[in-house]
Design a protein that fits this description.
With 281 residues, the protein is α+β, with helices and mostly antiparallel strands. It contains 8 helices and 14 strands. The longest helix is centred in the N-terminal third of the chain and has 17 residues. It is globular and about 60 Å long.
């Protein structure tokens, strides 16, 4: 029950901080019926979960909410199902944080999110988690390859997920290579009755915030973003979030990070020339 209560408090806090005006720590602690110290811990947890938590000049907190982003409304049955899913998830589940990143509780009857939680994607992630823990091979059925423009089954040894559970890092038996597989392009997963056989070849190299794996070189970039550019890059490339800092006494933000490939950020800049100042690229 303690874990369920904690999750509900987090959802309540998300809803509270999306509403204007910004809230003080004292007000947050009062609403959640907790201490100031615990309120600060919940705020830190929201940051860890990837929410865009900001603080104004009066030390009051709020979550930036882009009204231009299309929102998905769940009906009452879907809401009840999603709540049940969250409340029955144990503290050791590898999926709980991924769900909490993607949903917002805005009322007693409606859940609104900027990502639609699809049941079959959840099942795929659940099966892959089980295979990773048990060190079993899996068959990725009808995997849609964007590069090869093919649809085929892949036998792999799953190793880990990238942030936000967007991709699976796995060793592919056929190609004898460690690869990234987009979760959205997997039709289904079959757990095979066969243990890992290539552990010595396993390598986990996490990609950059744009999904590119480490290569021969890394590129340092530094940009100044308008509010519009900031909201759009957070929407399109949410893993950039930790590398963006507000510039004091302005409505602008600084993005400073290393990337493995310049193509994605160059395309982003090209589309928002009037909203981005390039300091270093």
């Amino acid at each position: 029950m303690h874990n369920q209560h904690k999750i509900l408090r987090v959802l309540q806090l998300i809803s509270l901080l999306q509403q204007t005006p910004p809230k003080s720590v004292q007000h947050i602690a009062s609403i959640l019926d907790t201490t100031h110290r615990t309120a600060y811990r919940y705020l830190d947890l929201l940051r860890e979960l990837g929410f865009d938590l900001q603080r104004d000049h009066n030390n009051k907190y709020f979550i930036i909410h882009n009204e231009e982003i299309a929102q998905v409304h769940f009906n009452s049955d879907e809401t009840d199902f999603l709540r049940q899913l969250i409340l029955t998830t144990g503290k050791d589940s590898q999926l709980k944080d991924a769900v909490l990143r993607k949903i917002y509780l805005t009322s007693e009857t409606t859940i609104i999110g900027n990502h639609l939680l699809k049941a079959h994607i959840g099942k795929i992630a659940e099966n892959l988690c089980e295979a990773i823990i048990c060190k079993l091979q899996v068959k990725l059925k009808n995997y849609h390859s964007l590069n090869g423009e093919t649809i085929s089954d892949r036998i792999v040894e799953p190793l880990a997920f990238t942030d936000n559970y967007s991709s699976l890092i796995a060793y592919e038996i056929g190609s004898k290579k460690n690869k990234y597989f987009n979760i959205q392009r997997i039709n289904s997963v079959e757990i095979l009755d066969k243990s890992w056989a290539h552990a010595a070849e396993h390598q986990i190299e996490l990609p950059d915030a744009f999904g590119f794996a480490p290569g021969d070189e890394s590129h340092a970039i530094q940009l100044v973003l308008s509010m519009k550019a900031y909201l759009l890059i957070k929407e399109e490339y949410p893993l950039c979030g930790p590398f963006i800092k507000p510039i004091p006494k302005s409505n602008k933000y600084e993005l400073k990070m290393n990337v493995n490939d310049l193509k994605p950020i160059n395309r982003f800049i090209e589309g928002l020339k009037d909203e981005i100042e390039v300091i270093h690229l």
